[in-house]
Specification:
By secondary structure, this protein is of the alpha/beta class. The protein folds into 3 domains: about 180 residues, Up-down Bundle (Glutathione S-transferase Yfyf (Class Pi), Chain A, domain 2); about 100 residues, no CATH class; about 180 residues, Collagenase (Catalytic Domain) (3-Layer(aba) Sandwich). The protein contains 17 helices and 8 strands. The strands form 2 sheets. The protein has a 5-stranded mixed sheet with strand order 2-3-4-8-5. Strands 1-7-6 form a 3-stranded mixed sheet, with no helix packed on it. A hairpin with a 5-residue loop joins strand 6 and strand 7. The longest helix has about 35 residues. It is globular, with a radius of gyration of 26 Å. The termini are far apart.
């Protein structure tokens, strides 16, 4: 039972014809999202039904493992078209329709992950296939499917499986609703003093030291201004005096430092560094179809061969209803398609940096620049991975993306695979630091600011966590 040539051997067939097609589309109406969700579920279910209904003597690599991998490639792209808009679309109706699509598709994912008939045929395949006939990726995929099947309890009695399925569906819906409501969340977490005792003991000494430093600064300023000193650190005091600590103890002026990081300068430096570091060329697609006017699409070519290996979207500014943090979303996995051609990888970096206005440029804090480099590292990991299975980037054959991507039961990233490369790539920010020019002066960032900035992170950790009344109570510094 030898697999097709495109999937056999130990070395990836990088010479496979490459399709530079962007299968993604962002012009769907709310109604179309609902209709296509139903179609996608029906199409994908038919493949699972075919795999699960095979006679055991007919089970083969092509009819089982390859069939599941191929449908996952198609499913991943179509699913992202339907559920990614909930995070980025400027239309509330489309965001709501996308969220509902995500719920239906997530429920479907659970159903497919609990298909005992499919699981039994995968186990049968593992027992009869010659291991050395499979590519390492295919073998890993096979082993992973079996492991996930056991984790889902598919080897357990039927009543236990039904309980697991019910729990998984409930968890899936809760996660989707939580993400949808996160930016509007106003709830609080009730904790007893007994529950907080151990935490307070660990953090209070450090917190007291930092509290004393901040109170000393506040007292000196009150005396200088002729104001009454109340001996308290109010919520509105925190950010101001955190900046004072950085300026007086570490010679870091955040407002001054920001001037060295205009968005245009940082973006140009970031793209230049990654192109040189990875041997790539980025080309802005001027007339690209995107989901919002602020979004830009770049094609990525291997500088040596000139071949297009992927594309990435940059969606960097906040707007109503948009995903509230910074993340990389894998949208189209780079892999071999069912016909043997290579599909390019496409990813999107979504962030919420300050948007420029006619009167003021977008200036980034140092930690925002770090975030930019970090998340863009995920993007590069997505695009530069060259795999055969239906996955790419941060999880190799185990995941399609750092965020989003395939939810069918074959892909989950190992933590070190997900975060390791982007953390290392984020350190290249120091090159941007050393070469940046001031917004007004045009000079480079002062060496003292570069060397002192990293040391400001740890001493302020408790100060940050004490920036609200509940956090003050958590570390034992608040009123009784």
């Amino acid at each position: 039972m030898k697999p097709p040539a495109a999937c056999a051997g130990d070395v990836l067939d990088t010479a496979a014809p490459c399709s530079v097609v962007n299968y993604l589309r962002w012009d769907l109406s709310a109604q179309q999202i609902g209709e296509l969700t139903v179609e996608l579920i029906e199409q994908t279910k038919r493949v699972y039904d075919q795999v699960g209904s095979q006679k055991f003597e007919d089970v083969s690599y092509e009819s089982t493992l390859k069939a599941l991998a191929d449908v996952e490639v198609s499913y991943t792209v179509q699913r992202n078209i339907l559920d990614f808009p909930q995070h980025v679309s400027p239309s509330k109706d489309i965001r709501m329709a996308s969220t509902e699509a995500d719920k239906k598709l997530s429920e479907f994912d659970v159903e497919m992950s609990m298909r005992q008939d499919v699981y039994q045929r995968i186990v049968w395949l593992q027992e009869k296939v010659q291991k050395d006939s499979l590519r390492p990726e295919a073998l890993r995929y096979l082993e992973r499917l079996i492991k996930l099947g056991r984790r889902n309890g598919l080897h357990l009695p039927e009543d236990t499986q039904q309980k697991i399925k019910s729990i998984k569906k409930k968890l899936s819906l809760l996660c989707i609703d939580f993400n949808k409501n996160l930016n509007e969340d106003t709830t609080f977490l009730p904790l007893t003093r007994e529950e907080l005792d151990e935490l307070a003991q660990k953090l209070k000494p450090l917190g007291e030291q930092e509290r004393a430093v901040i109170l000393e600064l506040k007292k000196a300023e009150c005396e200088k201004r002729g104001l009454d000193f109340d001996g308290r650190i109010n919520a509105w005091d925190m950010r101001y005096y955190m900046n004072q600590v950085e300026e007086t103890r570490y010679s870091v002026d955040q407002n001054l430092l920001k001037e060295y990081f205009p968005m245009q300068v940082v973006t140009k430096g970031l793209l230049s560094i990654y192109q040189e570091l990875l041997g790539l060329t980025f080309d802005l697609e001027e007339s690209a179809t995107v989901w919002h006017e602020d979004v830009k699409l770049y094609s990525v070519r291997d500088s040596a061969s000139g071949k297009v290996i992927g594309k990435f979207y940059l969606d960097l500014y906040p707007r109503e209803g948009k995903y509230g943090h910074a993340a990389c979303f894998g949208l189209q996995p780079g892999c071999l398609r069912h016909d043997g051609t290579r599909q390019i990888a496409i990813a999107a970096m979504v962030a919420n940096f300050t948007k420029p206005t006619p009167d003021a440029p977008s200036l980034l804090q140092h930690d925002e620049v770090e975030t930019y480099f970090h998340e863009f590292g995920h993007v590069m990991h997505q695009l530069c991975s060259q795999v055969g299975a239906g996955a790419s980037g941060t999880g190799a054959v185990l995941a399609v993306g750092a965020s989003g991507g395939s939810r069918l039961p074959g892909r989950r990233p190992a933590p070190w695979v997900t975060t390791g490369p982007c953390r290392r790539l984020a350190h290249w920010i120091e090159m941007c630091l050393s070469g940046a020019g001031g917004l007004r002066s045009g000079s480079a960032v002062p060496a003292a600011a570069v060397s002192s900035r990293p040391h400001t992170v740890v001493p302020l950790c408790v100060s940050v966590s004490s920036s609200s009344p509940i956090r003050l109570l958590v570390i034992g510094l608040g009123p009784p």
